[in-house]
Amino acid sequence: MDFFFDDLPSTSMSTPKKGKKDSLTMDDAACDLSRNTSSSVSLTEIERQHSSSCIDDISKKAQEMVEKINHGRTRDQEMMDSFQEKLTEKVTEMCQLMKEHMYIIYEKNSNEIQVKLQELSEVLENCSKLNHELLEASQALACLRDGLDINQRSEP
């Protein structure tokens, strides 16, 4: 049985076949070196591609984050613009309401002042009439006094 296994080709490179040379030939070494070089080049290329792929992924994620941030800023700016517009409308509306309210109060006060001025004018006119009547009465009394003085002087 031992003999049967000796004739079969080896499946492992680490165990050379019995009966043949125990060292590698020049062709085997060259093939092995070429395989190692090709393998290391392939590994380096794979590492480069992997690094490039990682960099591309990071770049894409960074770009997506920048786009999200810019989108958020745009949305925030639109919200602020909308808020400012609504605030301006509300302030304008409130100013208009205050203006109308002040005008109504001004009109009311103006009407009240007009009524009071009319009343004061009537009072002043009545005072003027009374002053004129008092002047006439004073003159009449002065005439009567003069008449009485004349009569008292003539009666002795």
Provide a descriptive summary of the structure in words.
The chain contains two helices and no strands. With 156 residues, the chain is mostly helical. The longest helix has 129 residues, at 26-154. The radius of gyration is 62 Å and the shape is rod-shaped.
Key descriptive features of the protein:
disordered N terminus, Synaptonemal complex central element protein 2, single chain, rod-shaped, 0% strand, mainly alpha, Syce2, 156 residues
Structural class call reads mainly alpha
Give the number of DSSP strands: 0
Q: Spell the H/E element sequence.
A: HH
Biggest sheet features: none
**Total helical segments:** 2
Percent range of helical residues: over 70%
Whole-number mean pLDDT: 80
> What's the Cα radius of gyration?
62 Å
Which descriptor suits the 3D outline?
rod-shaped
Task: List the SSEs and their pairings.
Elements: H1 2-6, H2 26-154
